[in-house]
Design a protein that fits this description.
This is Mitochondrial oxaloacetate carrier protein. This protein is mainly alpha-helical. The protein contains ten helices and two strands; from the N terminus they run αββααααααααα. The chain has two domains: about 35 residues, no CATH class; about 325 residues, Mitochondrial carrier domain (Mitochondrial carrier fold). Helix content is about 70%, strand content about 5%. Helix 2 runs antiparallel to helix 10.
Length: about 350
């Protein structure tokens, strides 16, 4: 069959509605167009990642609220046996928040949380494969799907996508964190008391302009870079390992159980690596502005926040809220990857 016939056959198989991309014939070296279905495109993968992460965060946001308050509790205070702690553990924190603030209290920050998920995870999941392929071609000359996995390149691709997504979504993470920390009953950290996401963005703009909206972005980029580099690379490896070792039990790359098991393992590793950055990010975002609106009143940068936190509260303060973080991140990772895989499978079949 000639190259032209192959191209026509591909277009016909794709229903004639695909995106046209160039390919090079191995026999003639002639560039000819081939069709790519929308369900396999970067745009659809971005959409799938955004929708899946928004669905996941709907269920896991209450754990994010609890985690945020546990991380802010006792900020820069030397621990003493008689220190007042409104939130003693996850179960008690859920009870206190639910009893006094209701379901709305447990779902604080959900609106900006959706927008952050679109910016972060839409970018991470949508561009991970293209970025990974670009890195493989740059360093090896071949695409990633033509050779064995190279862990450092997978980690680098995940980190780059995470950093980019965090930068895009930083203003929404800022508002989300401040809304989640606000409480009339058991306040921890500085209280910003925004009426809504729009109200928060307006007040931040009036207070510090564009710099105010992006205050703490460096900490968020460190957090997302660390978490994303581990999450995406680990998920890839776990999924391949499970599909290889448990193929005899019917588990393949498209099996929901494969996605579930890979996500469970991935969530633990991500939480272990990311929690210190998460504590710093939460505190950088929630701190009040310095006089004049330039910078934060408590921390000038993430490294100072690391230093002051460990000095005042000890090393393990960087793992405050770890269990709440995992109970948020674990199910979120599971739901997000299960949802995104199902959406992508649906897209490939119908688009």
């Amino acid at each position: 069959m000639t190259t032209a016939n192959k191209s026509n056959s591909s277009s016909s198989n794709n229903g004639g509605s695909g995106l046209v991309l160039p390919i090079i014939s191995s026999s003639t070296g002639v560039v000819t167009p081939t069709a790519q279905k929308f369900g396999s495109s970067i745009l659809f993968t971005w959409f799938a990642g955004s929708l899946a992460s928004c669905g996941a965060v709907t269920f896991t946001n209450p754990f994010e609220v609890v985690k945020t308050r546990l991380q802010l509790q006792g900020e820069l205070a030397h621990t003493t046996p008689n220190m007042a702690k409104p939130y003693r553990n996850i179960a008690q924190a859920f009870w206190v928040i639910g009893k006094n603030e209701g379901l709305r209290g447990l779902q604080k920050g959900l609106g900006p949380g959706y927008m952050y998920q679109v910016m972060l995870n839409g970018t991470r999941l949508g561009f991970y494969e293209p970025v990974k392929n670009a890195l493989y071609k740059l360093f090896t000359g071949n695409p990633s799907n033509s050779q064995s996995a190279i862990i450092p390149l997978n980690v680098a691709a995940g980190g780059l996508c995470g950093i980019t997504g965090a930068a895009l979504g930083s203003p929404f993470f800022l508002v989300k964190t401040r809304m989640q920390s606000a409480s009339d009953f058991a306040a921890v950290g500085f209280q910003h008391n925004y009426k809504s996401s729009i109200d928060g963005l307006r007040k931040i703009w009036r207070e510090g302009g564009l710099r105010g909206l992006y205050r703490g972005m460096d900490a968020s980029m460190m957090r997302a870079g660390a978490g994303s580099s581990v999450q995406l690379a680990t998920y890839d490896q776990c999924k391949d390992y499970i599909a290889d070792k448990l193929a005899h039990r019917g588990l393949n790359h498209d099996s929901m159980m494969t996605h579930f098991l890979a996500s469970m393992v991935t969530g633990f590793f991500v939480c272990t690596v990311m929690n210190p950055f998460d504590v710093v990010s939460t505190r950088m975002y929630n701190q009040k502005a310095a006089v004049g609106g330039h910078g934060g009143a408590l921390y000038k940068n993430p490294m100072q926040c690391f230093y002051k936190t460990v000095k005042a509260e000890g090393f393990f303060s960087l793992y405050k809220g770890f269990l709440a973080h995992y109970l948020r991140l674990g199910p979120h990772t599971i739901l997000m990857f299960v949802f995104v895989e199902q959406i992508k499978t649906f897209g490939k079949k119908h688009f």
